[in-house]
Specification:
mainly alpha
Length: 154
């Protein structure tokens, strides 16, 4: 890695870390100034509204179903992109089987391309597992939203 690329890497990481520090500060102290804080507030009020209305069961189920479908589609896209990228790299290096050691050895010979490739594939698999975890949480939410509260009769 030459000096110019190292400077770009450090500058990118500095911008990335400073942005996330700013974003975390705003999420903690000024949550309504960010879209994530605003949508979190809207979701909380939506759940409270669904719990107080008896006619909102279908709406809750449909909304949770849509969230699950969206997370499933995005998880599938992440896996498809990751395997597509591995296939493209295997073909560009003329490696017949991407599962053997020749694939990794060929990529890692050029350290910069290898690092970027492994980082992109790793990020996509991390996104896949995040979307899979969100599907799990939406399913838990679907069960929890229909549980009666302490003073409520069935």
């Amino acid at each position: 890695m030459d000096t110019k690329e190292l400077i770009y890497l450090v500058a990118t990481l500095a911008i990335f870390i400073s942005y996330h520090m700013w974003f975390t500060y705003n999420m903690v102290y000024h949550p309504h100034n960010t879209m994530a804080g605003w949508t979190s507030c809207v979701r909380r009020s939506w759940v409270a509204q669904i719990l107080h209305k008896k006619s909102g069961d279908i709406l809750a189920v449909q909304t949770l179903r849509n969230w699950i479908l969206a997370a499933t589609m995005l998880a599938t896209a992440c896996v498809a992109f990751s395997f597509g990228l591995m296939s493209f790299i295997a073909q560009s290096f003329r490696v017949a089987d991407p599962g053997n050691n020749t694939f990794l050895r060929t990529i890692l010979e050029d350290q910069l391309i290898g690092f970027k490739t492994v980082a992109i594939i790793g990020l996509n698999f991390t996104a896949f597992f995040s979307f899979t975890q969100s599907i799990r949480y939406f399913n838990h939410c679907g069960f929890a939203i229909n549980i009666p509260t302490v003073g409520q009769k069935n």
